[in-house]
Structure formats: structure tokens, C-alpha cells
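Reminder: ligand-aware prediction takes two inputs, not one.
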Amino acid sequence: METLTDNILAKTIRIRPKESHKGTYGRVCLVGGNDHFGGAILMATEASVYSGAGLNTTLTDPSNFVSLHSRLPEAMVADFTNRDELTDLVSAANTVVVGPGLGTDETSLKVLQAVFNTIAPGQTLIVDGSAITLISKHELKLPQAKLVFTPHQMEWQRLSGIQIADQTDEANETVRKQLGGIVVVKSHQTRIYTPTGSFLNTAGTPAQATGGMGDTLAGMIGGFTAQFANQTNAVLAAVYAHSAIADELARHQYVVLPTQIIHELPRYMHEHQH
Ligand SMILES: NC(=O)C1=CN([C@@H]2O[C@H](COP(=O)(O)OP(=O)(O)OC[C@H]3O[C@@H](n4cnc5c(N)ncnc54)[C@H](O)[C@@H]3O)[C@@H](O)[C@H]2O)[C@@H](O)CC1
Ligand SMILES: Nc1ncnc2c1ncn2[C@@H]1O[C@H](COP(=O)(O)OP(=O)(O)O)[C@@H](O)[C@H]1O
Ligand SMILES: [Mg+2]
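Here is what comes back for the chain with magnesium ion:
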């Protein structure tokens, strides 16, 4: 198991070429946010926008449209129950993030199945939060795509069947192989399992233990994978940056809010571009 350091940022965050435009930096489609968990998809979307993804569209419950637009005019919105719009927007994306605040009811399940039926093998699909719980509950068949799962330990227990106390590297890696793709098992020391090796994130702080912190990471992984070519490095860099920014803020703060991490992203990425 390799420990992540800021080397991963230098390997990943590129100085932007002059000759470029929003299309150069990827399209992200974020799917989630029911009528109770609007904040989750708002934070995920804000994290993707502030990570620098060129175009961001959020498929959510219409009750979240006004709050999303008033906070984040950069993002586009659409109703996640509109099947035609979902198909068009998911198909057009480089990266799709599904799950933050999606919920686990009948509508949530239909939305997730629509995403799974639309996604293509060349696209990156970040599977977070409620989407992980739904897959576990309904034993859903996974689509062909570049899959990135971002469970916390309880969600990983549901998805993998491995009890939290038994989540050893060996057991986690065995299930990752069965699932395919990358698995980010989030905890106070997040572990990332990839086809090319396993990584330990020793950055991060208990000041991060607050709702929305994982939704924010999912959006960052969305923004990083959409604009940086090496998908594994993009995931690793997002995990590291999320915690390293929190560590900076926690030097002077008892608690670090997800939105505070998001707002530091443009400055932090500027300092670490190569
Ligand atoms: N503002 C919002 O709208 C928020 C919405 N959220 C959404 O709420 C939905 C449910 O997610 P939750 O994670 O709250 O609920 P879950 O029921 O999936 O998991 C939470 C449970 O797991 C336990 N647990 C064990 N180990 C853990 C670990 N290492 N990290 C975190 N929890 C651990 C917790 O104690 C808790 O009982 C998701 O879709 C999520 O995106 C949450 O992110 C909270 C904020
Ligand atoms: N004590 C801690 N130390 C370091 N990181 C933490 C700690 N507690 C939580 N985190 C981080 O916060 C995030 C929580 O994710 P998650 O539980 O999915 O949050 P939510 O679903 O509420 O957005 C993960 O990235 C996790 O690593
Ligand atoms: Mg979560």
C-alpha cells in the first residue's frame, strides 16, 4: 500500500494551455438530490464547478432548481425524472456522478436504472451515497463504464458484504476485482483500491466529520476525472486535495465545512499546477 503525498497533485493538475475553451475541460453530469437531500447534490455540483470542469449539468428534483441556480449560476439543471433529458445529458458527459442525496425510494431507483441503461463504456461513472445503497439493496447489475465507487465504511459493508471490522486490504481488493474499476473506501484514513495498486490517504482531519463532506469529494472526483486524462491519478489527486485543504483550514478551525473546502479549490489548484 502506497501512501499518497502531494506528488500526486504535480502528476495530475496541469497548467492550462492558452489555446483552450470550456469544451477542453470536460462535461460533468451530476445526478441526485431528492426533495430532502438537495444540499448533497448542490455541494457535489459546486465542488465540480470549483474544480474547473468546463461544463456542469445537474439532474435533480425540481424542488432544488431555485436553490441550485441562486447559489451556482454556472451550472445547468434538469429534472431527473425526465427520461429524454436524462438520456441526452448523461450521454453528452465525460463523467457522470450519481448518488449524492439521491435517496432510496422508487423514484431514486428508477433514476439510477436510467443512468445505468444510458452510460457507455468510454464514460467515467462515479457511484456515491444512495446509489451504492440502492445497488446493494436491489442487487443491481453494474453497467460497462469506467467505474469509481466512493463508499464510506458502512456503504462498503452493504456493497461488499464485508463487515466494517473485517475490511482488510486483502478482502477489499478481492471485492474490487469482482466489481471492476476503482474503489475509494472512505474513513478517517481513506484507502483507494485501483487495478494498478492500493493507496492510503493519511491527510485529513476529524474537523471534516460533518454531513456533506463525501458529497463534496464525489463532485471533486467528477471535476478532476472530467479534465485530467489519467483517471486513476485524477481520483487519487481529488482524494488527497480534499483532505489536504481541510488540514490547512483545520489549523485555525474546530470544524471545516464542505463548502469552505470547495471555495479553496481554485487557489489550491493554482498553487499545485504543473
Ligand atoms: N445536506 C444533505 O443533503 C446531505 C445529504 N446526505 C445524503 O444522505 C444520503 C444517506 O447517506 P448517509 O451517509 O447519511 O447515510 P447511511 O445510512 O448510508 O450511512 C450513515 C451510517 O453509517 C455509519 N458509518 C459507519 N462508518 C462510517 C464512516 N466511516 N463514515 C460515515 N458513516 C459511517 C454512520 O454512523 C451512520 O449510522 C446520501 O445520499 C447522502 O449523499 C448526507 O451526505 C448528509 C448531508
Ligand atoms: N475523522 C476523519 N478524519 C479524516 N477524514 C474524515 C473524518 N471523518 C470523515 N472524513 C471524511 O469525510 C468524508 C465523509 O464522507 P461521507 O460519509 O460520504 O459524507 P456525506 O455523505 O455526509 O457527504 C470522507 O471523505 C471521509 O474520509
Ligand atoms: Mg456520502
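DSSP finds eleven helices and ten strands in the chain. The chain has one domain: 2-12+24-268. We will return to this case in the review session.
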